[in-house]
Amino acid sequence: MSRFFKFFSAFIVCLNVNSLNAQLLLNELYVNSPGADEPFEFIELKGTPGSTLNNIYVVVFESDSGSAGNADVVIPLNGVTLGSNGLLFIGTSLGYQNIPSETVYKDTLLFGLPLLENGSISFTVMFSPIPMLKDVDYDTNNDGVLDLPNGAQLQDAVGWTNGDLTALIYGGVILTQSAGTPDAAVRFFDNNTPFSAAAWYNGDLVDADSFDPLEVSSNMPLGSGVTPGNINIPNNGTGINDLIVSNLTIYPNPSEGVINIGSLNLDELALLSVYSVDGRLVRQLELTNSTVDLTNLDSGLYWVELRTKREVKRAQLVLSY
Questions:
Q1: Residues 248 and 224 in one domain
Q2: CATH at residue 249
Q3: What is the pLDDT of residues 146-192, one digit of tens each?
Q4: How far is CA 172 from the centre of its chain?
Q5: What DSSP assignment string belongs to 9-50?
Q6: Computed over its alpha carbons, how large is the radius of gyration of the chain?
Q7: pTM for this structure?
């Protein structure tokens, strides 16, 4: 076979893969419920409505240095046709019984989804004409590059570490946050870029669907949350590429209760939120001037967030009476 023909054949395979599985993406990942992990862990995908998946696998790889590259979870999706909203939910009906009818539901009770790692982990979606196998090491030399079967191609990938500097995250997309390891990660509704950290926000959870404002990614949007089987929120057209994240100036700090907000533009709507150290929203108001009275709050450490349409500013505040 000529070199040209080999190249042309590979090119045709790529075209077929892309046409059959256009824009198949990881969409939402839920690995660590505030209570018991089972039966609430799930993986959600987003693709072209009405498309049928062929030779597609979701593969979750171990990323801790000692066993990096091992395929902990392999979920074949051959023959699955996406519904009208393009969402595919992979979870158990014991945890989620009210998934919308337009979402395709792959109930993991049928094949037993192992518990997802709460530490270093890599999620991938891939095309492979050769079946991907569970408990196979696809990086035997631990060089951080997956040794995939002939013809296999990654479609999307994302992962994170638990602080292990020697962990290997496959696919090159590593999510970070202010503290801790992500309990869940959500793709921005209007960002369909594969292999992009900017397409995601993530954090620790304080309940089943709400993030802890003290342990989140710096791009956490207003109205964020986990939406199993549903369209991701927020979905008002404002995505991560539009937001500017910076430090908020508060003075005095420490304060005896009355604070001033620096560099405040009163020509646009500004929402100020104050959170306790355990993640509870304790005060929220629309600002009409730069002075805010918080004397109704107890002494202690708080997290203050200021949001406008295009900007997020955050700072810690100490109230000391």
A1: no
A2: 2.60.40.1270
A3: 999 999 999 999 999 998 889 999 998 999 998 899 999 999 988 99
A4: 15
A5: HHHHHHHHHHHHSTT-EEEEEE---SS--TTT-EEEEE--TT
A6: 22
A7: 0.70
